[in-house]
Amino acid sequence: TVGATVWLLVSASTVWCRRWEGVSMMDVSLANILLSATSSMDFSEQPDTPESHILTLTFYQNKKNYVFINQAMSWSSAQQYCRKNYKDLAMIENQEENTEAQNAKPSSDVVWIGLYREPWTWSDGSNSSFRNWNDSYLNNYADKQHCGIENSDHNWDDLNCVSHLKTCVK
Fold first, then answer.
1. 10, 40, 49, 163, 166 from 73: Cα distances, Å
2. Among 11, 34, 36, 41, which is least packed, fewest CB within 10 Å?
3. Which pLDDT score, from 0 to 100, does residue 37 have?
4. Cut 0.90: pTM above it
């Protein structure tokens, strides 16, 4: 349904949606992933930055669309905002979607996407084999980086969930 609040998971064999209203993020261990649009969309570590954007998820005629939200907030606030106004935080399931998400935001911005950890899963609880980590930066610094970002090099990284970033929804 266009305009409904849902998570979308796309894998090689399935496409499915799940509602996420009323879920407390205090019940899960988060790992925010920031999406930053520059060049190669690999995942990497970034320092805790005071601002980031949102990349949100929407559906248009059964196709995933990424939307850049130019408003800084924490990962859980970004998730609530996206679920209320769009579908959810962006889920990136393959290189094609990675490129689409990259193109949805200004190249210098770092944004939240819907990945959290231990183990790393999407905020709807689903798994995906696609990853775009920059392993040299994925370190859970000070045991406080449990949310995922995509950085300006288009790599995924872990970051403190209370950092204020913009986001990308789809």
1. 27, 25, 11, 7, 6
2. 11
3. 32
4. no
